[in-house]
Fold these 3 entries.
Entry 1:
Amino acid sequence: MKHAYTWGAILAVVLTSTTGDVLLSRAMKRVGDVGELWRRAGLLTVAGRILRSPSFLLGIFMMALAFYSLLFALSWADVSLVAPASASLTFVANAIAAKIFLHEHVDHRRWIAALLVAGGVALLAV
Amino acid sequence: MTFRKYLVLAGVTLFAAIGDSLLAHGMQQVGNISLHRLPDIVLTILNPWVALGILFLLGFFAAYMTALSWADLTYVLPATSLGYVLLALIARFLLHEQVSTARWLGIGLISAGVGFVTQGPALTHHPHEDTGEGAPEPVGSRTES
């Protein structure tokens, strides 16, 4: 039972933080190159455009959910399992989600990178 | 990718690693927070380490959002994962913790992953055109939105 709670919470962390990252990425792509916009229209315009983006706000909300899911997971299992498991699974989930929802060109290079980093993060906990 | 953009990616990496370390250090000073006294969590920002950690994490968030405004998610995430390596190196050389062989292997894998992804283009060019080596700067290539 404890196992089910732990992995359920880890799954929740992975899903919410991936959703959050995808939403934030989408919001920022819509806003466009922040450096350029800042030079052209000033910091207030940049901040206004970001803060008025529904994707951005929803993304922040998902990140908050991810944080609370992480706290929940940590109350069921050790940080040495929860932190690397959720971090490394999130790398892989992000690659899949970015390909499907953001239509990013995830080539061999990026798949290999995501898997190497995911594996590396998992090993750091050993 | 310009030098400035690499600086932003370095900022994402450094701010996250330093912010997390500061928070961890501060929270160890604060001690355990009981679930029954949850409001105490608000008071933890009075600890200077925690406050500084939060400042760094705000810096991380600003840099992360900036990076996402001109680079793909699948580029930014692996490219900034060197923070994990940095944390392990801080643990080994500043905090004098033992770093196991498995951990060094993990550090190697992450570094290899970072090397892989940063060799490629930072931004997908829409619509469906294959981006190769030395793709031009993404300015004006955003045809969606």
Note: The mean pLDDT of chain A is 89.
Entry 2:
Amino acid sequence: MNIRYGELLEHLGWFVLLVLLVSVVYNGLRRDDVGEIIRVGVRRGLLFASISIALFGVGGYLLAAWL
Amino acid sequence: MRRYSPATVFICIVATWIIPGAGHWLLGRRKKALLYAIVLTAMFVIGLVLAEFRAVRSDDDFFLYLLGEGLYAGLTFPTLWLTHGLQLVAEHPRLEVGRLFATVAGLMNLCVMVDVYETAYPRPKELSANDGVTSAGALAAAERSA
């Protein structure tokens, strides 16, 4: 299997950044304290990104190796 | 609680469509307004830079993206006008990622517009177990008092 690790890592970085930004905006809805918005947004964003990478990254790798 | 007229709320939502956070600023939520303006503008600009300023286009292939990006009007339409001469002649390896960032920035601005409405007309808080009484307990107390 030919994996281009540089591009893979770059796209993972963009994915995590996008998820964090979206999470901060989304978790700001119906909240007023900016500190709490950032704290909750970053925490949930990192959790979402980690689970997504674990599921789709590892699952995709195994699927590609199997195929 | 301060009541806002529908005209005021409409103006705030239109202001948010043009500049994210402007509606919150007008409603007095200054810090939240700055947060939204910074985050959404950063997301949009990152998208533009990644796509080498070709993320906002009115070609047929880009039209659905333009619908999403257009929800952030203050950057989308000036960008469309300023970059309409740029051609897709060379390979742009991050074009898709850039379009994704710019489109998501526009779509998230729609959420911010909804939040402006909810800030002006907040929904009543739901009774929950965290409020100290369960809804079943509140119901029993109401029955006892009746």
Note: Chain A has a mean pLDDT of 91.
Entry 3:
Amino acid sequence: MITLIHYLVLTGILFSIGLVGVMRRTNLLMLFFSTEILLNAVNIGFVAVSHFYGDLSGQMFAFFIIAVAASEVAVGLGLLILWYKRNGSIDLNSLQMMKG
Amino acid sequence: MYEIIAFYIFSALTIGMFAIVVMSKNALYAMSALAGGMIFISGFFFILGAEFLGVVQITVYSGAIMALYAFGMMFFDTTRDVEEHAKGKKIAYTLSILSAILLLVILCAPLFSQNIQASYPTMENVGNIQMIGLLLFTKYLVPFELAAIMLLVAMIAGIVLASKKMDFDPQYDDEPEVLREVK
């Protein structure tokens, strides 16, 4: 039988994959992808808790997280396109202009 | 039995897809694998009885967000492999230790919360979508409206940032200031 622990372990694995991506990648587009992975992992956790405790608040939180992710992508990609036009690179190291 | 098989198949596929996203050198492969992973995640939502969120996951994530990424990729050179110069091994090690501790706390958190009471329990013979509608337009009305305003602001910001200077060459951006200084 699949219990809540199964889902939470899966959430943890997916979240750590996302964290590895955030730490390993220096391309900004790939960082955005890793952020999406983190948000999705948390969504699975919320929906699983909501199912196993019979409470719908978890699903509402997942719903708002999806809304936040959508607006984040809209603004982030706009900024990314501007930065690429200006610098010709979306590497994180190209952002290091305030090195003291 | 059926649920167990579905859970393990979906989790293996999701983990595989997201591992491709994290490890792949090609941005296009990473984006396609991410779209596939999103669809498999909606499978979990259907198993868990959250039909509304499953449909929203497919339409919003693999529809809207992936289309936005595909649109954004037109501006970047995606045929070339992603070159990354990861520096600072010490920072990476510190962060991985910190994230391992975080993971431990996340996984142990349910053990310390045995007596959770459902504050909005699901009713009998009311479907998932109907129940979400009831809850969304009574208890969560203000967050819902705030989310709507946030999406509107994000849409305007996206349009202003991306489309205003679509045919504008940024190389000549600083020229008027230089001319002003000469005068």
Note: The mean pLDDT of chain B is 80.
